[in-house]
Amino acid sequence: MDLESTVMELIINAGESKSLAMQALASAKQGQWEEVDRLLEQSTEAAKRAHGVQTELIGMDEGQGKVPVNLIMVHAQDHIMTSMLARELIEELIAIHRKLQA
Asked: Which phi and psi (to 5°) does residue 69 adopt?
């Protein structure tokens, strides 16, 4: 496996997940609920792909330092974690928008 490509895949999927969640929030502000649900589902799928790559990397490492930790690896981990936090907060904001617009 090409480690650099794998790490980039993690970054891309995490970024896509966050971007789609942000788009869903923008749609929620407009009351476009079908679009919100579609975008959140796509965001979830991208997050699952990112998490799958992360799990693969953890499995390769086996807790023994087999995978080199470098700046790009740290960046990738930061990306997935901020993406996960953003999605959680965005889902809460969307729930508030739904309630206020109902």
From this structure: -95, 115
Rounded Cα distance, 98 and 40, in Å: 14
Q: Could you tell me the fold of the domain covering 3-101?
A: Methane Monooxygenase Hydroxylase; Chain G, domain 1 (1.20.58)
Per-residue pLDDT of 51-62, as tens digits, reads 999 999 888 888
Known binding-site residues for Mg(2+) equal 78
49-89 pLDDT, tens per residue?
999 999 998 888 887 888 888 898 999 999 999 999 999 99
75 part of the active site: yes
> Which amino acids are annotated as binding site, given as ranges?
78
Q: Which amino acid is at 45?
A: E
